[in-house]
Amino acid sequence: MLMTILDGSIVTVALPAIQHDLGFSSAALSWTVNAYLIPFGGLLLLSGRLGDLIGRKRVFLAGNAVFVAASLPAGLAGTPELLIAARFLQGAGSALASSVVLGILVTLFTDPAERAKAIGVFSFTGAAGASIGQVLGGVLTDALDWHWIFFINVPIGLATIALAVRALPAERGTGLSAGADVAGAVLVTAGLMLGVYTVVGTEGHGAGQTLAYGGLSVALLAGFFARQATARTPLMPLRVFRSRNVSGANAVQILALSAMFSFQILVALYMQRVLGYGALATGLAMLPAAVAIGGVSLFVSARLNNRYGARTVLLAGLVLLVAAMGWLTRVPVDADYVTDLLPVMLLIAGGGLVLPALTNLGMSDARDDDAGLASGLFNTTQQIGMALGVAVLSTLAAGRTEGLLAGGAAEAVALTEGYRLAFTVSAGLLAVAFAVAVAVLRPVRRSSARAPRAGRRVPS
């Protein structure tokens, strides 16, 4: 998971070097990132279900193998087309591997305290991967060249495969006959991929084109849900949504991740475009946030979840995140890092409470034979939240900035006001997430923290 998340952010700081070396146009350069995100977000749900059907260990190993195999041509790429194709395969491999990780965790760690620790480590890797990627991308690009941001995946991936072969228990799965819904697989994969493509390409599409793509994506997904209600062996049994905690946790995650991932992107842009930070300096400036989130998720969240319950911890974390975004709504043009930004980096530690608590809630009602599906669903809503947040909030910030520039405002002032608007909306999204959590989520009994047996319903 560290490698998967790291690979989503390590490319961002190397984009100028990639553009110069391979001759990307400005419009096409974004596909270095988008070609990874589209298959990653689109294949998560299908990959999670495949884990239940043919075995999560097999899907995990296959995903890592595809990712490693694609990393080598990505590093060797001499043309834009080859790099984009390799990135697409990397995204597909990441979807296969990461879709089943939570399913593996909840079936391996049946003791509530041990599971809480495992989920804390899982959340820590997410926080660490995003920030390490930014720092490591700058170091590798400056010290060697951009090719090494892909080559580094090869030894890490091979070591992961070797360890997984020995450490993960073999499992047969329920068999393809238990859920080989080909039509459903085509509908959901096409709908999710088109949806992610629509979101990540919002800035490049016109309004009419965006609405058309978005409408088609919704129609495909609606067809998928209609299919699942009538199929003899559905790809995604709709019973998973009967749990208030599963449905509510996924809804809260979309709202919360929209704000949190946008924080990472927009604050980095603010530092570079307004304050004049370089790529490496920006990564280092964001490091306290990663340390705060990682430290809380690794050393604090498990204890708090066991003592007070995941719902209570989630609400406390959301309050801290609202405070962090509220602080950012007042950032000045000439911000001082210690007084204007460092407090935000510390308050964002609320993410270290939110992510493990959401994971506990989102997986609390998963049966053994649905653990991969629940894991894939949870990871899918995570990707949707991040993609939506970046697309919508970046568009709002850009629109505000362009309007002020047209009115004669200085560039730094216009940019700052645009980012302030985005941070204000982020705070609003987190407030809505808090309201949804209060209204929908229910405390998880200690018995529901145990891995359920196949076919047995666990109380939520």
What is the element layout, followed by pairings?
Elements (H helix, E strand, L loop, with lengths): L1 H9 L4 H8 L3 H4 L1 H24 L1 H21 L3 H20 L1 H8 L3 H32 L4 H4 L1 H15 L14 H19 L6 H24 L13 H30 L5 H21 L1 H8 L1 H19 L8 H11 L2 H14 L7 H36 L4 H30 L20
Helix pairs in contact: 1-8, 4-5, 4-6, 4-11, 4-19, 5-6, 5-10, 7-8, 7-19, 8-14, 8-15, 8-18, 11-12, 13-14, 13-18, 13-19, 13-20, 14-17, 14-18, 15-16, 16-17, 16-18, 16-20, 19-20
Key terms for this structure?
Growth Hormone, Chain: A; 460 residues; 2 domains; mainly alpha; disordered C terminus; 0% strand; 20 helices
Q: Please compute the radius of gyration using only Cα atoms.
A: 21 Å
Q: Could you say which overall geometry the principal axes of the C-alpha atoms support?
A: globular
Note the beta-strand portion: under 5%
The CATH architecture of the largest domain would be Up-down Bundle
Q: Kindly, what is the distance between the CA atoms of the first and last residues, rounded to a whole number of angstroms?
A: 27 Å
Q: Enumerate how many helices there are, as a single number.
A: 20
**Count of structural domains:** 2
Spans with pLDDT under 50 lasting ≥5 residues?
447-460
Give the mean pLDDT. Answer: 80
Class from secondary-structure proportions: mainly alpha
**What's the helical proportion of residues?**
over 70%
CATH topology of the largest domain: Growth Hormone, Chain: A
Order of helices and strands: HHHHHHHHHHHHHHHHHHHH
Total strand count, please? Answer: 0
